Amino acid sequence: ELGANAQGVLMTEGLKELAMVAAFFGIPESVAFGISGAGDLISTCISPDSRNRRMGVLLARGRTLQQALDEVRMTVEGVAMSQTIETLWALDVSIPLFHMVNAILRGERCDPRKEIAGLIASICREHEGSDLSGGTRSAARPHGVGQAQVPSAVR
Fold first, then answer.
1. CB-based burial label for 129 (10 Å; 0-12, 13-18, 19+)
2. pTM score, two decimals?
3. SS in 3 state form for the chain?
4. Which of 68, 145, 136, 150 is nearest to 101 (CA)?
5. For the segment 63-77, what is each residue's pLDDT rounded down to a tens digit?
6. CA-based Rg of the chain, rounded to a whole angstrom?
7. Which of 97, 100, 120, 119 is nearest to 108 (CA)?
8. Which of 3, 29, 31, 70 sits between 20 and 30 A of 63, alpha carbons compared?
9. How distant is the alpha carbon of residue 15 from its chain centre?
10. What is the pLDDT of residues 93-104, one digit of tens each?
11. pLDDT band at 32 (very low <50, low <70, confident <90, very high)
């Protein structure tokens, strides 16, 4: 189980990526940061009743995707949504958290704990020496043409 600081880093990255996806699709910041955007993200992250959270916990405990789906026994919307949003990675939208989650769901990365630790370390390195208001771009995904900007409310 992740500590509070690690959870905070992941939720912050999730909010940043949610804002980038929303900006890419022209979704207003008021929606992205409203109940159906940020509100849903936060409740998904903290609620033990969240199907998406339960799925993630089961995967982190070593279950396969199918085993986790069988155990949750209900639709887990995040699985299909992750696959849909993954297409943005090919369009040069920097969404490393979504990308990592989708790779775990596809079975390409078999140790979710290791992947999460690596992503958290990468996020923290990205912010070293910055004022944490905008951060720096990762060398693996430099800012480029066609890439969504992080809305000002996230900076």
1. exposed
2. 0.74
3. CCCHHHHHHHHHHHHHHHHHHHHHCCCCHHHHCCHHHHHHHHHHHHCCCCHHHHHHHHHHCCCCHHHHHHHHCCCCHHHHHHHHHHCCHHHCCCCHHHHHHHHHHCCCCCCHHHHHHHHHHHHHHHHCCCCCCCCCCCCCCCCCCCCCCCCCCCC
4. 68
5. 999 999 999 999 999
6. 15
7. 100
8. 3
9. 8
10. 888 998 889 888
11. very high
Residue tagged 């775990």 (tokens): 104
Q: What is the structure's pLDDT at 149?
A: 47
Is the confidence at residue 6, as pLDDT, over 80? yes
Q: Which residue has the tokens 């060398």?
A: 139
Amino acid at position 57, single letter = V
Q: How far is the C-alpha of 58 from the C-alpha of 6, rounded, in Å?
A: 18
The token pair that represents 147 in the structure block: 């890439």
Q: Both tokens of residue 125?
A: 């390195």
pLDDT confidence bin for 82, thresholds 50/70/90: confident
